[in-house]
Write a structure and sequence with these properties.
Three copies of one chain form a homotrimer.
Chain A lengths: L6 E5 L4 H10 L3 E6 L1 H7 L7 E4 L10 H6 L2 E3 L3 H13 L4 E2 L4 H7 L1 H10 L7 E2 L9 E5 L8 E4 L2 H9 L6 E5 L4 E10 L4 E14 H4 L4 H7 L5 E8 L1 E2 L4 H18 L7 E9 L5 E7 L26 H14 L9
Parallel strand pairs in A: 1-2, 1-4, 2-3, 4-5
Antiparallel strand pairs in A: 6-9, 7-8, 7-9, 10-11, 10-14, 11-12, 14-15
Helix pairs in contact in A: 1-11, 5-6
GO molecular function, one term (chains A, B, C): magnesium ion binding
Keywords (chains A, B, C): ATP-binding, Ligase, Magnesium, Manganese, Metal-binding, Nucleotide-binding, Purine biosynthesis
Cofactor (chains A, B, C): Mg(2+); Mn(2+)
Chain lengths: ~325, ~325, ~325
Amino acid sequence: MDYQKYTIATLGSHSALQILHGAKAENFNTLLITTPDREKFYKRFSFIDEVKTIPTFADFPTVEKDLKDKNVIIIPHGSFVAYLGVEKNKNMTLAYFGNKAVLDWEQDRDKQKKWLLESKINMPPQYDSIEKAQFPVIVKSFGAAGGAGYFLAKEKQEFENKIKTFKSNKYIIQKYILGVTLYIHYFYSALTNSLEILSMDRRYETNADGLGRIPAIMQQEIDIDPSYVVVGNSPLVLRESMLPEAYDMGERLVASSKKLISDKGLFGPFCLETIITPDMNFYAIEVSARIVAGTNLFTDTSPYSIFHHEKPVSTGRRIAMEIKQAISENKLELILD
Amino acid sequence: MDYQKYTIATLGSHSALQILHGAKAENFNTLLITTPDREKFYKRFSFIDEVKTIPTFADFPTVEKDLKDKNVIIIPHGSFVAYLGVEKNKNMTLAYFGNKAVLDWEQDRDKQKKWLLESKINMPPQYDSIEKAQFPVIVKSFGAAGGAGYFLAKEKQEFENKIKTFKSNKYIIQKYILGVTLYIHYFYSALTNSLEILSMDRRYETNADGLGRIPAIMQQEIDIDPSYVVVGNSPLVLRESMLPEAYDMGERLVASSKKLISDKGLFGPFCLETIITPDMNFYAIEVSARIVAGTNLFTDTSPYSIFHHEKPVSTGRRIAMEIKQAISENKLELILD
Amino acid sequence: MDYQKYTIATLGSHSALQILHGAKAENFNTLLITTPDREKFYKRFSFIDEVKTIPTFADFPTVEKDLKDKNVIIIPHGSFVAYLGVEKNKNMTLAYFGNKAVLDWEQDRDKQKKWLLESKINMPPQYDSIEKAQFPVIVKSFGAAGGAGYFLAKEKQEFENKIKTFKSNKYIIQKYILGVTLYIHYFYSALTNSLEILSMDRRYETNADGLGRIPAIMQQEIDIDPSYVVVGNSPLVLRESMLPEAYDMGERLVASSKKLISDKGLFGPFCLETIITPDMNFYAIEVSARIVAGTNLFTDTSPYSIFHHEKPVSTGRRIAMEIKQAISENKLELILD
């Protein structure tokens, strides 16, 4: 089996270090495509064999031909859609790890809702109009954008005031579910048809995660507006008695993706972003159908990864292991698009 | 030394994955007893040699004879008392890792109080009646139950209102100590008479750990009632200058257990659940005389475990190491009950 | 290369376990100097070859002669200045890892400000007098002291009330920046002139990190005063798109230290203590020009350390690796003072 023939590549952002570090651990060639401002940064790391610089991420198609000659396999992450948009992802002619048909279902909140419903996963109640809402509500813009497009409203008047200056005119209104957040990092193998939970995290959001350190009385007098911009992640483990349902939810998402999206369905890394309520129920906020940034906490191993693997395995490395197995079994067509 | 003769077994919940993963790392046979709804889940993990399914956990005594023939050593965890009750634990005829005499002292809050006092460990002031209380108070039901049986009251009237609908009529009233929580995971070896701190955590409780992300003004208008249901854990380390006292508290607990409980006293894994106040004092909330769920963060190694061991050691693996040593030194009677 | 000739030593506090554990991993002799109350504690750990006890940390100079005979290299940490003061550090005649000239710039807030400005790192606006302040403000005493010397004020009157009982009469007034904290642990090699980010954390402060779990309405009625006493740390990773700036800030600090402080400038471990605002900007609160306690989370490895090293490397071990390289290249004079 000649891995030297293949180069694992990704865009310089999000979880690129983890992906290429994992690829190198599995002895692949590694290549990173980035913009001039980040070139110096990525060149610090010796596990990246080649850094290719393009003027802007939108120029990605101009290097496709060159990358094709290098037998590149592209690993998409959260910045691919943010930087290239769904269409440029779909039109990519390079070997692409994952099922591009899932992209539409990840991006479109109505499709997500249908997918989660079909998977029998609870969601916060959602309202067509503010008139029908139960308060408090959280209002979210459509599309990714790293968590900036949110606001809370405790009554209709507050909603009306805030919506005027909201940056998006495509949004959804959900009941605000009071609980704690948990992001579950899955990996589903299309080669063995088996599911692993590799790790878990919670997001670290500014300024939301700083508010609690300010006494209530001071908060009120300084008139704070909460924001939910994701700037990091912190690790968590889940109560073991809730793990069976966590695995089941992942399997139901995969099963319904095969029914709703395409035969191949969802595979590789994905994430279910949940809120856990005091009755110990999970409510899904979102499905991310690719590696998520919370896995960056576990670039070596994780409390869950070691239950599935005898060596240190990150999500990035797990992707490389899957590709390696597909190469050796001559099944690359099962995992590339 | 023939480990093949022994099988390490536990109930399918709480920290079972860690316990059996650690046992397998030390080359023991592993067996899990669980209920039908969790059978599929535990069969995912190859380090579990056998999954034995019983209709309900209460049916455990029906399989004891069979387990005895397999030379099983049972590792108890937090779900043993929750599912079987203290009596069924005591009446178990299988080899049981730990000292069953400690169970009464763990379950009975009055005995816990006596034990902590004898160990010269601070506790929050406790009140016989609400008339004598200094507010705010926290009211806790007797027994385990995963942290659900709590409420806060800032004055007598609030206590009177909340106690009416409280699910338990056996409870204690404590002064609410304002600080931060820290759970210290100890292991005391009855073979070497030495203490290790293996790791530390804080609990992740719904909805208490979500409250701080909601601005004070919104909290007030949506009329939030806090709850403290433990659904996970997150990692911590302690300021090094406070570590000597953390070790000393553990040794004092062991020493006083030998005096108060029985000659063998407390050994194996245990946990002191503390609040640290701004004057850097520890207040003990509870002693858990067995492996706690927070150790599930450290199924590989931990920032403290590596100070005692040259290989990756979880609390689960540490238990297996102790059993292995006892077997090789012919001292199993020192650690089994 | 004969490491047996050298002994790595430090004072028994702060990050001593990590430092000596890392030194032993690199095969150095290890020695710890501590006070009688901590002697038993440090003797628990077999990677510490010798524990030397002195009546108080201030008696350190009395053992210098003896240590010199043992060919000791001293690794300073946060407790060195706290226990010995800047002058005793500067007057130390033992081989001292680091640049003592940096101590003045770490201790003096005006010099820190100059250093950060020169490094083009944002700082919270600072006010000469309360008359000119934009509220809310945070008031900080000069010097270290583990985070105890702080208070918040939302208006002038509150400032006037609190300053009366403030323990320090040397303080600074800063605008309180609303965001989330992130502590970045750097290591700059004076041998290779290259920078590594080894890990990141946030502090765990009592009672500030407990406040958020108390509902706003209860906080108000029990009249809470926040405090910021550091008793631990919890792990974090940063959004990858912000990592390039995190590295750049570190390099700018090193570059300006060579200009402002001395030719050697800042090298070895250091930390930038930041607040990240919702516009994803870093604001520096402080530079610590030595190993910080947050690295104690990563005594084995860290999510960032593995991007620079193929083996498990803590900050403590990284220091030992640097010393080892300097010995083998005959360049100890580059890293000792």
